[in-house]
């Protein structure tokens, strides 16, 4: 397994911050990141946090937890399927003490039992496991979910609470064997947190509310938080206040009775994680550093000072490749010109991440993490209302703009005003990807493991994967391919029956990466297409499909290129070229030789695009100022 290697530029992280955790004394804050690192900050002066140590995993780091009995010990949980335990002294270098390996899937969350010697780890495979830290030994499986287990929280009394995408909340005591107490919800639960006294469990619900439950999981009250999903929750030391992060980038302070005290709206905030300690609140960020707030009034005390430009979405228009980034910037790159430094323009559409892009002529549409659609026609910027969930996919279909949501809905928007026309329940999970079909309709891929085709109201199932589907691509309306977390790509011919239904035929399963496949593209001719797939293992793979030889698909795809982070998205520029982007900022244009063999034609980097766009912007401003200066009339001296 290769290690993420994103060069640092300045202080802090080089990619979004996934988790924040205060040490018991509130003097240090651990932040985890997509860049594969954990940074420990000295927060004694919260207005000027300073870096104490940087810890490294091989993949993105999802969570960390400080030891309640020994405050210099920190556990970190990673997508490299390990949990590491470090000693982080107030002075001197950090020391790796133990590695709990090897878990069967990415570790999403970790928490210490009160004895300070055992850890509970929860992972993408739904399992909750208990480990002995002194000897690194596996002790027991203490719970399981039918879908991804998202978070674990342990009370002061040692009660273990886990929540998952299956809507299950489970509470048990690993020292007292027996069936855990369970409570089921109709939708995903991604966050939970015990009060410091251990008498209440706060559960962050996908519908934007937080439930307060007793130890026995009896309902105490429901607190309405946001129109977007509630993601994370934590309590103050005296349990008088709890803080909730919501998907729309908002943070909410409530008292124990559910009365709202403060609210912060900031699209730079990644509410995947919040933490409270000693009068401070910390929140994750899509930028290089965490946000720190005063617990008593919500004032921001410090925040990030640098954007990260990880590319999440690609689109094309009239010779330009559009790259949508975590920073909220869209870089418009001329791909039809020669030279090492292409012409670049920066469209600063928003402050938060752009998850999806679509174009219609000169008009650009961007779907955001905060649940808004932004329309930019070159002169006017229009922003929709808050649509209730992040928007990972967009497509223009007929007279409507179609947005796929984290909630599994297809939203039909007016393409000019962005007014919401209709909500359609299309999938049982997040609609991760949409791809237009010639003549109308589109392909869709979702976390409910399905790939479908057709117009918005008449979706036809093409095939099913063994795990969530991250992306779908089409070729000439005759071939479709999909990328899944089950480590496979499926490709098949697609066509319409006499009654107009879409069907998939001659479906082949392509085996390549040993990790989740994130994005997919198609090149060439429908009778012998080339499939491209990008993985979390940093590899860009290529297969040339032979419809008459399904046995050959068991062979691994050819590695066309290797990145320094997972690959994020692909875009067909035309039948002969596909653009591929990775979270390390690298973008490659892939073409074909005469025999159909895929090859890299050009390589770009988002960091260089940002520098070029900034230089061009400074030049434009200077030229405008000089023009204005020379155009002013000069009065003759008396």
UniProtKB/TrEMBL annotation:
WD repeats lie at residues 10-42, 54-88, 100-141. It comes from the Bacteria. SUPFAM superfamilies: WD40 repeat-like. Pfam families: ANAPC4_WD40, WD40. InterPro entries: Apc4-like_WD40_dom, PQQ_b-propeller_rpt, WD40/YVTN_repeat-like_dom_sf, WD40_repeat_dom_sf, WD40_rpt. Keywords: Repeat, WD repeat. Residues 194-257 form the Anaphase-promoting complex subunit 4-like WD40 domain. Coiled coil: none annotated. This is Anaphase-promoting complex subunit 4-like WD40 domain-containing protein. The lineage of its organism: Bacteria, Bacillati, Actinomycetota, Actinomycetes, Kitasatosporales.
